[in-house]
Design the sequence.
């Protein structure tokens, strides 16, 4: 529950990590079932922790997309039923806009209400590595995508590499903690630099409509045809695999996978006890390459578009090295950088409520026949 888009009254997260862990990644069918199981108790708990009743709610917000259709449909069906029964307005929110509003919510909570525009937001999660220029007109926000991943998202690369190294799921938090114990200069990884235009988005980008009304310089943006800032992370996963093969690490990895699989909730010491220095050096080098690429491309985009403020958000924004590197390098370019706190970096409901607030003020309510949009774009 969130009050006026700026105060979290309760924020309940039902984790599905234990369900998906044995499979080394999210299983869509299981995700839908877990949503169905959790949704009623989670909403009840959110109300109880806030000391509120269903009747005291002013409006309901729900994620319309992007995401797994089955899981989205569970949330949308329940939200529609609740809105209908309570006779309250329902607001459909884009998941990525939620991640961006996680930053705004906490900044407002700290008393910082002024954002300098243009804002550049890097949304970096298990499903997305997207750069958005964000503008505000009155209460409404609008977004222009200026870069995205061509293949794997950054979080997906963390998860796949962790799985490849026998570390379990989700990989990001484990790699984050282990990387500190390795030498990041040990293995050199080159991440693909993308020069050619993306055929999937080229036609959309040439449409020429202004991205939003109040974004100083948007005319310049369109006139000068800025380059795009796309990412690609499938190559580094293959490079890690090749390193593992050429260094003959497969036996150690299998032993680690088995040993960690027998521990219900492995601690950092359990992971460390099952990783030799070569594995730790590889982990640290992988993370350094990922962070280097995310930071350098984002800052290059920030300079190109003359942005005044940088937001970094989404599950991977919880990464310590990513935060430290942005915090060190963005101010060198005169750009303040904001992150959500770690609990609000990964998926949560408070960010969806926060993103709904401007729509609530503008009375942009969902029509009751709206449905899930698994590939929903942010505009
Ligand atoms: O935003 P999120 O909770 O869900 C999606 O919308 O995808 O992001 C989850 C992703 C996973 O890939 C996970 O491995 C990654 O975020 N992640 C991290 C860290 N914490 C979560 N990646 C790197 N370092 C972390 N500390
Ligand atoms: Zn997310």
Sequence:
């Amino acid at each position: 529950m969130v009050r006026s888009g700026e105060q979290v009254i309760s924020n309940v997260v039902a984790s599905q990590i234990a369900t998906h862990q044995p499979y080394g990644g999210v299983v869509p069918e299981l995700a839908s079932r877990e949503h169905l199981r959790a949704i009623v108790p989670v909403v009840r708990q959110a109300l109880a922790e806030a000391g509120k009743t269903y009747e005291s709610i002013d409006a309901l917000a729900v994620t319309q997309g992007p995401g797994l259709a089955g899981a989205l449909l569970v949330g949308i069906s329940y939200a529609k039923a609740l809105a209908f029964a309570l006779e309250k307005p329902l607001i459909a929110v884009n998941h990525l806009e939620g991640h961006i509003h996680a930053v705004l919510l906490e900044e407002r909570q700290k008393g910082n209400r002024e954002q300098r525009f243009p804002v550049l937001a890097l949304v970096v999660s298990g499903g997305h590595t997207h750069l958005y220029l964000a503008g505000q007109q009155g209460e409404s926000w609008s977004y222009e995508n200026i870069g995205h991943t061509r293949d794997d998202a950054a979080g997906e690369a963390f998860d796949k590499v962790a799985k490849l190294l026998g570390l379990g799921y989700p990989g990001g938090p484990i790699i984050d903690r282990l990387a500190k114990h390795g030498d990041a200069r040990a293995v050199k990884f080159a991440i693909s630099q993308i020069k050619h235009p993306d055929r999937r988005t080229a036609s959309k980008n040439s449409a020429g409509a202004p991205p939003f009304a109040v974004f100083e310089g948007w005319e310049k943006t369109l006139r000068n045809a800025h380059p795009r800032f796309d990412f690609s992370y499938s190559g580094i996963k293959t490079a890690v695999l090749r390193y593992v093969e050429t260094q003959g690490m497969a036996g150690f990895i299998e032993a680690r996978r088995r040993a960690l699989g027998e521990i219900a909730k492995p601690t950092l010491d359990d992971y460390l006890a099952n990783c030799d220095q070569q594995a730790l050096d590889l982990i640290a080098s992988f993370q350094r390459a990922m962070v280097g690429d995310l930071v350098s491309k984002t800052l290059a985009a920030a300079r190109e578009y003359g942005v005044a403020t940088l937001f970094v958000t989404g599950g991977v924004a919880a990464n310590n090295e990513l935060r430290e590197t942005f915090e060190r390098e963005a101010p060198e370019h005169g750009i303040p950088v904001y992150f959500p706190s770690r609990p609000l970096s990964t998926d949560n409901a408070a960010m969806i409520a926060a993103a709904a607030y401007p729509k609530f003020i503008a009375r942009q309510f969902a029509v009751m026949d709206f449905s899930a949009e698994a590939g929903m774009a942010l505009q």
